[in-house]
Design goal:
By secondary structure, the protein is α+β, with helices and mostly antiparallel strands. Helices cover 24% and strands 29% of the residues. Helix 7 runs antiparallel to helix 8. The longest helix is centred in the last third of the chain and has 14 residues. 35% of the residues are buried.
Length: 229
């Protein structure tokens, strides 16, 4: 099920992405969604300032990866969290860039969706509050969001309020919507690994992405080899 783990605001994983820690990247150029049809472009520093001072702009930075800001930032993600993603073992040209810095003004959010490529996800909240509403995979299938559901999921809808220092996990196939009642800064990542690679293989076969299914099968075989100490 979706799970929320309280690691606390004093944890080094949280402090690595606080505003003070991000200050050295203030001049990095970023893009964001906004209430304007053209969106918003500017520096990360200007954007973080607008989070507090311009609440009516509907600014939401969703698509800026950590490597867009600085490739070295990925190393600040807690190692056991990074190791959830078996696809990180792939060569650079094949490896998905699945780490993002996300930030939004009060009143922004994400509509109901299922994460792409059958992946699971984690979200670490640095500042603010988020409200998460989840529907189980069987309901996501009923709504036409995914073609199949993991057979082991038989759960009811759930809701969480996430606060700073909370690490929230979204399993594969769960539909979810997110509301930001306050300004928020979060670090998030997707992964395919031990917990969900079998579902990913079945999902890719169901949608006709046979190359991705074969790739995941190869990754699974490499990680589960018995002849490697």
């Amino acid at each position: 099920m979706p799970t929320l783990i309280r690691i606390g605001t004093d944890h080094h994983f949280v402090k690595a992405f606080e505003r003070d820690s991000l200050s050295s990247y203030r001049e990095v150029s970023i893009n964001a969604e906004s209430s304007s049809a053209d969106g918003w472009s500017g520096t990360l520093g200007d954007f973080l300032t607008r989070l507090d001072n311009r609440p009516g702009d509907g600014l939401y930075m969703k698509h800026t990866t950590l490597t867009d800001i600085d490739p070295q930032l990925v190393a600040r993600v807690l190692r056991p969290v990074r190791e959830l993603n078996w696809l990180s073992s792939l060569p650079n040209e094949m490896r998905p860039s699945w780490y993002w810095l996300m930030a939004g003004q009060a009143g922004t959010g994400t509509p109901l969706h299922v994460d792409s490529m059958a992946s699971a996800a984690w979200n670490l909240l640095i500042t603010g509050r988020k409200i998460w509403r989840f529907l189980p995979p069987a309901e996501a299938v009923h709504l036409g969001m995914i073609p199949i559901a993991p057979a082991y999921y038989e759960f009811q809808p759930v809701e969480f309020e996430q606060t700073p220092g909370d690490l929230l996990f979204t399993p594969s196939g769960w539909a979810h919507a997110v509301e930001n009642p306050t300004e928020t800064i979060a670090v998030t990542g997707n992964y395919i690994g031990e917990a969900n690679i079998d579902f990913a293989i079945s999902y890719f076969e169901a949608v006709g992405e046979h190359n991705n299914a074969l790739l995941c099968q190869d990754v699974k075989s490499a990680f589960t080899r018995k002849d490697v100490p």
